[in-house]
Amino acid sequence: MLTSLEIDRLCDEFESAWQAGQAPRVEGFLLRVDEEDRERLLAAIIPLDVTYHRQHSVAVRAEDYSVLGQRAVAIAQRVIGAKIKETLLQGDPAGQASIDTSGIDSATQETINSPTSARTPRSDHPGTRRQARSLRNTQ
What we know:
Layout: H1 4-19, H2 26-30, H3 38-55, H4 70-90, H5 93-96, H6 106-113, H7 128-138
Helix pairs in contact: 1-3, 3-4, 4-6
């Protein structure tokens, strides 16, 4: 079973590939881990994949992850729904063009449309994972 640090290292490698101008395939990273660790890696890597697709103005849909299974689609739906909400909160209509809302489940739509007073949008800027880890390590 992979440790959290090993998952973070794979995610860092995935991010580095995107930052180097490549478009790494989630499937390739999943094949590098045992089957028992794939769901944890999916939960960590899909948000990165969605973020980098958006940053490169590539439309992404939850169905794009269907080859990875229904769990991957469900994760992608939550992530894409959160990205839509974040974009709306930031008032960035240009960012909406890179998100396809078709196929978003009703629970995600409710999340998008729910009041936001109790929530603060989080940043998915590249390196955020590293910053969060470094903050945890200094405490």
